[in-house]
Amino acid sequence: MTDQIRCRDAVHQLWGYLDGALTTGNQEALESHLSWCLRCCGELEFARELRGLLQRRASPPLPDDVADRLERFVDHLDDPSGPPNPTVDHRS
Ligand SMILES: [Zn+2]
Question: Has residue 1 been placed in a domain?
Answer without folding.
Answer: no
